[in-house]
Write a structure and sequence with these properties.
The structure is a single chain. The protein is globular. It has one helix at residues 19-28; strands spanning 2-5, 36-41, 45-53, 62-64, 68-76, 78-85, 92-97, 102-105, 112-117, 120-124, 128-134, 141-150. By secondary structure, it is mainly beta. A hairpin with a 3-residue loop joins β2 (36-41) and β3 (45-53). It has one domain (2-150): Sandwich (Jelly Rolls). The protein has a six-stranded antiparallel sheet with strand order 1-10-5-12-3-2, covered by helices on one side. A three-stranded antiparallel sheet has the order 4-8-7, with no helix packed on it. It has a three-stranded antiparallel sheet with strand order 9-6-11, with no helix packed on it. It is 7% helix and 51% strand.
């Protein structure tokens, strides 16, 4: 799991040959971007622009992915994302679904709260359980981009 600002993206470019395309997209996206899927490099790299209200963590579940790395970039607003190493997530609420590239898990007390503000991004790898879109204080609207980068 990584938390950093967009200005520091080159630090992580060696982790995946596809990161350069993902971060190039994040550099050009604005808060006027159309909500929905944006094509970057076919099924290897694509993005979802999302506008949503954050929710209390008690209403959320951990998720994990196998085929894609998540790069989650907050354009406007702020949210808390929780992180936990996958081996700690033993309460499976939805077994891995290959079509959705996702598994879901119940909450655990060992989860780490990560506060993410506008201009910051997180990177969640397949071994990282994560809960995005959690309220930081009261629920609030967030505009963010989730770039899916094939492993």
């Amino acid at each position: 799991m990584i938390l950093d600002t967009l200005a520091q993206w080159r630090t992580y470019s060696a982790l995946s040959p596809r990161f350069e395309k993902a971060f190039a997209f994040l550099h050009q996206v604005t808060d006027q971007a159309t909500v929905g899927r944006h094509e970057i490099a076919g099924d290897d790299v694509f993005a979802f622009v999302q506008k949503h209200a954050t929710k209390p963590v008690a209403e959320r579940l951990y998720e994990s992915h196998r085929k894609y790395i998540d790069v989650q970039y907050v354009l406007r607003g702020r949210e808390v994302m929780y992180w936990a190493p996958l081996p700690l997530l033993t309460n499976v609420t939805m077994p891995f679904d290959a079509e959705k590239d996702a598994a879901l898990y119940g909450l655990i007390p060992q989860g780490v709260a990560v506060q993410v503000t506008a201009g910051q991004f997180t990177v969640f790898f397949p071994e990282d359980g994560h809960i995005p879109s959690c309220a930081w204080g009261d629920p609030a609207e967030v505009l963010k981009v989730v770039v899916k980068v094939r492993v």
